[in-house]
């Protein structure tokens, strides 16, 4: 009976968590109205977009490079080395570009958002905003979600280019491929739908990362330990949701 009681408690906690998150999303949706804090939105564009570019670019270039090496190792057994460019291009644009960029953003941006808003919660700065007749959701949450929605696709476009370039460097300068042949095969296989599907995933992942960071930070409690727990929960939940959402979107689009 203890086993079933444990399962029941976990189910109840999970259901309550989903309900609290749904209520939070509804409150955020109701807060999307004027006045818009343009300065705050621009600052989030900088924090989420530009400052995340180095880690996303570094991840993309080595992902493309490793993918080219591993593809060559497997395809050389079947004399299919000419397909390496196609595999790198499709894998980066459809899956690896948006997924790895989303996971990097979950670790960098999601944790930072949860820590910042969580600190404001435990130090009662959010209560002070309400006292000053400022909607905390409109001031703190909405700019971050808007920035995640708009900047994540831009980051993924750059990650796609850098990832394909990483595969190009390895194929040409290490595996002795013809530069013209590699680029021709890359542009020949890529279609607009491949890039578009990756951008759709990127927009969804941007919303997930920022929503998880804002939700866990906004509802944190218990001082410094609570902020640490909120940061961990934000990164873990965002990473899991990115992988689940990636499968769902892939199943719908392909």
Structural topology:
Blueprint: H1 2-30, H2 38-49, H3 53-75, H4 84-122, H5 125-131, H6 136-173, H7 179-189, H8 192-218, H9 223-253
Helix pairs in contact: 2-6, 3-4, 3-6, 4-6, 4-7, 4-8, 4-9, 6-8, 8-9
Overall description:
By secondary structure, the protein is an all-alpha fold. It has one domain (37-253). Helix content is 85%, strand content 0%. The chain has nine helices and no strands. The protein has helices at 2-30, 38-49, 53-75, 84-122, 125-131, 136-173, 179-189, 192-218, 223-253. The radius of gyration is 21 Å and the shape is elongated. The N and C termini lie far apart (44 Å). The mean pLDDT is 89.
Strand content: under 5%
Give the domain tally. 1
Looking at the structure, what is the overall shape? Answer: elongated
- Please write the string of helix (H) and strand (E) elements: HHHHHHHHH
Main sheet attributes: strand count, strand direction, barrel closure: none
Radius of gyration: 21 Å
Main structural class: mainly alpha
Low-confidence stretches: none
Strand elements, count = 0
Please, what is the average pLDDT? 89
How many H/I helical runs?
9
Distance N to C terminus = 44 Å
Helix content: over 70%
